[in-house]
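I'm stuck. Protein, please.
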Amino acid sequence: MKGKTAIVTGGSRGIGRAVCLEFARRGANLVINYAGNQAAAQETVAACQAFGVSVLALQGDVAEEADCARIATAACETFGSIDILVNNAGITRDNLLMRMSEDDFDAVIRTNLKGSFLMMKAVSRQMMKQRYGRIVNVSSVVGLSGNAGQVNYAASKAGVVGMTKSFAKEVASRGITVNAVAPGFIETDMTAKMTEAAVKAAAASIPAGRMGTPEDVAAAAAFLASQEAAYVTGQVLAVDGGMY
């Protein structure tokens, strides 16, 4: 990835931070988008710069088209290209369907699904001009299997899968690949909120016998974002220890 430019949304912590670090280790310059935690974003920036790459941190809401356009423009103006996009920004608002508010449903769809759409749209013109691009969307095993209490989240992540496969067909002839990773239970801030009993139950459902790490997902994203994955597009790579 040396000399390539990667945009990673939601890059300040968790899976996003692990992706940024892995890409930096491989030599990519980075545009790290974050929603509001500036301190965490700066920690990620410093950690990535330690690998000798250039890093730009930009606050922005991926569900706002103007913010997405600003992020893409800044990447081009700073580094001259946009070679990789990782759509990682996401939120949860869990509840049973009968108790879920319309606002909680809309908020999750807005960030997870619409945000991915807007960022792909924002970078697509530059990638088509270059005739090169790697897009990796972060879906979820929940988008493939469903999960009680996560109707909104599952819908958003299933939507990401359909969008990935559709856009892959639109841009394949231009040297652009569009793939998705579908993480299972990963040790992040989201899963840290789970009770000990819930964590044990989750681990018991995973053939690998453990929860995954953000680094497990980052390694998969790095492959899909690599030049070696030029003939892989429209695919969903589950990173779930065999759970689904």
User: Anything to note?
Assistant: The mean pLDDT is 95. Residues 5-239 form a domain with the Rossmann fold fold (CATH 3.40.50.720). The two ends are 31 Å apart (CA to CA). DSSP finds nine helices and seven strands in the chain.
